[in-house]
Structures are given as C-alpha cells and as structure tokens.
Amino acid sequence: MTPTHTSSLTRMTTRHSDRERAAMTVVARWFRRSARPLPWRESGTTPWGVLLSEIMAQQTPVARVAPMWIEWIERGPTPGALAAASPADIVRAWGKLGYPRRALNLHVAATRIRDEFGGVVPDDVDALESLPGIGSYTARAVAAFAFRQRVPVVDTNIRRVLARAVLGIAEPEPPRVKADLDLMDSVLPASPAESVAVNAGVMELGAVFCTARTPNCSECPIVEHCAWAVAGFPANAGRTRTPQAKYEGSVRQARGAILALARSHPNISSEQIANAVADPSKRDRALEGLLSDGLLVNAKRGYELPSA
User: Fold this and answer.
1) What is the pLDDT of residue 4?
2) Catalytic residue among 20, 42, 54, 304
3) CA neighbor of 201 nearest in space, from 49, 65, 63, 29
4) Which residue among 9, 47, 83, 97 is least packed, with the fewest CB closer than 10 Å?
5) What is the CATH number assigned to the segment(s) 8-36+151-230?
6) Is 54 noted as a catalytic residue in this protein?
7) Least confident stretch, 5-9, 51-55, 160-164, 204-208
8) Start and end residues for every CATH 1.10.340.30 domain found in the chain
9) For the whole model, what pTM was predicted?
10) What local confidence, expressed as pLDDT, does residue 293 receive?
11) CATH topology for 251-304?
C-alpha cells in the first residue's frame, strides 16, 4: 500500500515499525563494514579532532576537508595549541576551504575551551552550543561521535534519508529542529554504541547512496526496508528544492578574491582590491562584509588580516 504524504510531526506520533528497526540494524552493520576511511574516524582521534572535523566539514565536501584536517590537527593538536596562534595565521591556514568566518569562530572556541574548560572539549550539548560557530548539529555530532553518547544527530543527509526511508517521501519537508531531532531519536537504538553507529551510518548513507539528485537505490543496503522504495518511488516531495545561488560573479566570490590578496600580502590597498574585483557594488559589499566579520581590519595603508 502506498503511504500517504503526512508530516513528520504526524508520523512521529506512531511507534516506529519493525521495518524501520530492521533498517537501522542494517545501517549500523553496513557502516561498520563500509564506512569511508576518513582520518578523523581513526582510532585515537580526540574530541578536539572530532570537533575540528565537524567545523571544517560544514558546507564543504569531505574530500576537500580530509587533507586540511590532517594539516590542522598537526598545527593545533589541542585547543590550547590552536588558541596560541594569531587570528591572521588562522585565516591564512584556512586557505581556500571556504566560509572563512569558521576559522575565526574556531579560534575563539579554542580560546574559550582553553580558558573556561581547562583545555578540555566539553561533553555536554548545552556547553558545546555555547561556543561560537557551534549549533545544534555540531554540538550533538561531537557528543555522539567524540563522547559516544546516545543523542540524535540531524544534518541535511540524515533528513533526506529519514524522509525517504521512514516517511516515504522523495524530499524532506522544511527543517524543524525539534521535529527532526524527535524523528531521528525515534529510530535510534537504546544502546549508546548502536546509536552512534546509526547516527553515523544514516549520515553516510545520505552522502554515498541516498543523494539528493541521483540516489543509487539499486545498491542501497536498506532499499528493501525503505518506505519510499516500497511505495514505488512516488514523486511526493515534501518541499520544492530551492536552486543554489551561483558562485561565479557573486559577492561570495568577491570576498574570496579579496581575502586571497590579504593572505598573500601583509597589507592590501583599495587599488589592489579594485584590480581583483571589477564590479564596484560587489566589491564594496564584499569588503564591508569582511570588515564586519572581523576577517579584515583597517590599517594605515589599507586593510590587513586581524592580528589579535
């Protein structure tokens, strides 16, 4: 029977089925056997290493993050070591990883962990959320993957897998933090160890098989347990996909060009910025944003990276 398109709130009021429990068991087993060999998944990775990986992987493909993570964990193996670096060094080291405000937030977070938590990454979700740049997802990811706690973790990949496998819809509904966390919590096993494997496995499934545009359902390990597959893959999306803004010619691209200049020169002039970004409107907006975010500061002869 084809499932009706109901909201996740309605769906969560019912007890999860044997099919869903079976699916989560398969996910955990598949993840332990087939997870991608990412460096932060290796035995001995510290909670700080996990936190660093989660910050670096925000809106960034893990293939780009992995080599950078290795460099950063060598540069700053502890929060205190990273806090000792200058903000300018941190922004330079961030390179072209994207969204460089993350680098400054990470530096402030490392400083606060050193000064307020004795240099030890806190294991409490609320304490983690109090750190700059750490929201609901990152705090719970660190609690689960670094401290092996039974807490639901929800990111874009997990929301998509739950929409299809549990709710039977092609695309997830608009994000609702509590409802999404409740839905994930409803399918987590009681065992903390198993819950960690399920959190990580569902996320991995969304990245590897249950992708947004071209899901590889024929090779998905839980296809026989998936409500959307059982229903015949109906086109019953919970929302309309919003096209992603183009990077080429954007203010974001202008910000990157200006920041690239600042990383390679101790001081940059307005003339250099004008040569790098021809569009005056985008140039002004990009420069204003970089100054507002603290990624650049005014200097006597122009602009430079923050020094403290």
Assistant:
1) 42
2) 54
3) 29
4) 9
5) 1.10.1670.10
6) yes
7) 5-9
8) 47-145
9) 0.82
10) 86
11) Arc Repressor Mutant, subunit A (1.10.10)
